[in-house]
Amino acid sequence: MNNYQSRSNYHHPLWLRLSPNQMLKIAKSILSKTLPSHLKKKYYQWQAKNKPKPPLVKERLLENYTYDFERFYKFSTAKKGSNLSSNLFPKYSHLTQTNLKALITKDYHRIEKGLALKEPRIGFGKNTVNNLMAAIEQYQTLYGSDELVQISINTLLAYYQFNYQQGHDNKQLYEQINSVKDKIIEDQKISEGGTKTITKKDIWKNAKQDLKNFFATRHSIRHFSNEEVDLSLIKQAVEMAQKTPSVCNRQTSQVYVFSEFQDKQKVLSFQNGNRGFGEQASKVLIVTSNLQNFTSVGERNQCWIDGGMYAMSLVYALHSLGLGTCCLNWSVEHTVDQQLREAVGINDSQAVIMMIAVGHLPDELKVAQSPRKKIEEVLIIK
Ligand SMILES: Cc1cc2nc3c(=O)[nH]c(=O)nc-3n(C[C@H](O)[C@H](O)[C@H](O)COP(=O)(O)O)c2cc1C
């Protein structure tokens, strides 16, 4: 308010100096004291009718789907087209490193999968091979050589060798492979990529264990001991969870670990299911899935699947190390999701899947029985 207004206001009578809200309040109070009861009722009815309504569930759903849609559209490569052929080379310049990594992984894995069939088709996947070759050349130019380049090269070599053994010698591909390979520093070389031969005996030796009891003894834990969970245990569990299957082996999941009391409290303050035990957790984890890994419209919900499966592996891995866990839902609307991201520094490209409270078990504790449905309700045999 400038001087002129304040000075002129000063000369107005009191009621003219009140704000509209103050006037409304006074008017309401006079009305409620003076109006006869039948008019008062009518007034209240009118007031209730004209009260601003909270958005309908349908509107909120739309708003939240839009939030997911916009982030998927922005970060995935769906809009850019996943079939980037080598003659459309400049297309790669629009991509982030993670985008490019996802496309490369998708393609090298397509070749690995093809080679792992009982009877691979000679010369299969020519477009994929060309795409992959062009993408790793570009990747190497932009970012140098890393494990992904080496895995891709190893896969392409396995592909070349398979075809060579079948009488198809693709010399051009061999030269291209070697030109990328020559740029990889010797002591950085790794052998992964392609296929490996395994036996049923080996699988059975390690996999045929009594998992029934392992599954049966995992409970959601809501009572932890005071003992600190060493970070090395979390690392071991994450290492195990890395074996989780993911779409085209793109490994979209990440795990954020919070150990400091204040950080854990901050994270948990956005979550609605940890009251009474969250503060006892020695570590609070947030599992995310990076949207930059997804390449088509059909994959719009893939983050929830990849991330959910990863979280499950992680929970079982922690269980195998003797730790207690409780999954904590991230069933929130976009406003809360944004608040958490801002508070703890999680990029918009990450879909938050869930939190996991982790702690050591006390000697004795109660768990919810959480009875399960009968198998007949679940297993539909067609
Ligand atoms: C995605 C997900 C979110 C969950 N969120 C919560 C939560 O916020 N708070 C909680 O106390 N339990 C939570 N739980 C634990 C479930 O209540 C529990 O898994 C279920 O009742 C089965 O019990 P059990 O885990 O002991 O076998 C969650 C579980 C899942 C899978």
From TrEMBL:
<keyword id="KW-0560">Oxidoreductase</keyword>
<dbReference type="InterPro" id="IPR000415">
    <property type="entry name" value="Nitroreductase-like"/>
</dbReference>
<protein>
    <recommendedName>
        <fullName>Nitroreductase domain-containing protein</fullName>
    </recommendedName>
</protein>
<dbReference type="InterPro" id="IPR029479">
    <property type="entry name" value="Nitroreductase"/>
</dbReference>
<feature type="domain" description="Nitroreductase">
    <location>
        <begin position="216"/>
        <end position="260"/>
    </location>
</feature>
<dbReference type="Pfam" id="PF00881">
    <property type="entry name" value="Nitroreductase"/>
</dbReference>
<feature type="domain" description="Nitroreductase">
    <location>
        <begin position="269"/>
        <end position="360"/>
    </location>
</feature>
<dbReference type="GO" id="GO:0016491">
    <property type="term" value="F:oxidoreductase activity"/>
</dbReference>
<comment type="similarity">
    <text>Belongs to the nitroreductase family.</text>
</comment>
